[in-house]
Amino acid sequence: MSQPAQHQDVPGVESELTPAADHGEQSYRGSGRLAGKKAVITGGDSGIGKAVAIAFAREGADVLVSYLNEHDDAKDTASWVEQAGQKAVLVAGDLADPAHCREIIDTAVENFGRVDILLNNAAFQMSHDTLEEISDDEWDRTIAINLSAFFHLTKAALPHMAAGSSIIGSSSVNSDTPSPNLIPYAATKAGIANMSASLAQLLAERGIRANSVAPGPVWTPLIPSTMPEEKVESFGEQVPLGRPGQPAELAPVYVLLASDEASYVSGARIAVTGGKPIL
Q1: Which residue(s) pair with 88 in the sheet?
Q2: What's the pLDDT tens digit per position in 133-183?
Q3: Is 67 a catalytic residue?
Q4: pLDDT tens, residue by residue, 80-125
Q5: Three-class SS state of 39
């Protein structure tokens, strides 16, 4: 796959992405692996979150999709969830606000009665050539959205999670091979991997599992909205497979971690990187 140089305003939308990303709309086939489960996905309007929402629904889960303000993208995700015969709940708002994180979980409990799967997936990043370009506000906002929200969501969800539940954090290859141009983002992704590993140990006695997924370059609206156009054009060429991944190629890993098939998988960080090893 190659993609032309392009730019979007933050946070980016699927309709302006060229070429369009594959979220498994026409390819993912479910087999009841999440039947009856209730899932919360942040950043489920586009990219990896959208692909996972579609996969979760086709595996039998009801899905709450949290997103910022990309209403058309979120409605499209909801339509795919509903076409799979599952309930879709949309919640718009800013994850940088701890109260909104709690509102997401409250809404899930009101609609579903419980939370079986919590996927902290939403993220913000910006590319900078110097440290001085990173404003204090950008640093604080990146930490708040990517990492602190994971804490607030998990804390709010735990009273509504029973044994067998699954917490999943979207980390990154940047968690151990950080890009010098993505310092705030890379720091949060290392934090997500670390926090997931800590939660696995802390929550084991409750029968709740926690893991993280470390994607490599994946073709989503985040890329043209946060990177220079020339880097977008060559995005993904640096990995051994020579291309960015499609969101649909990530979804099966999240399904596994959410399912009862992974009953002995906790504290793991699974690389989906196009061949680039993680430590």
Answers
A1: 63
A2: 999 999 999 999 999 999 999 999 999 999 999 999 999 999 999 999 999
A3: no
A4: 999 999 999 999 999 999 999 999 999 999 999 999 999 999 999 9
A5: strand
Q: Could you give all domains of the chain from N- to C-terminal order, each with its CATH number?
A: 35-272 (3.40.50.720)
Cα separation, 4 vs 232, whole angstroms: 7
Among 28, 185, 254, 264, which one carries the catalytic annotation?
Answer: 185
Q: How far apart are CA 87 and CA 64, in angstroms?
A: 8
CA distance 90 to 71: 9
Q: What is the distance between the alpha carbons of residues 148 and 99, in angstroms, rounded to a whole number?
A: 12
* Token pair of 254 as six digits: 């999240």
What is the rounded CA–CA span in Å between residue 15 and residue 20?
A: 8
Q: Model's pTM, two decimal places?
A: 0.95
Q: Are strands 117-120 and 209-215 parallel, antiparallel or unpaired?
A: unpaired
Please choose, from the candidates 173, 215, 189, 210, the residue with its C-alpha nearest in 3D space to the C-alpha of residue 47.
215
Whole-angstrom distance, CA of residue 193 vs CA of residue 115: 21
Pairing of strands 38-42, 117-120: parallel
CA distance 178 to 85: 40
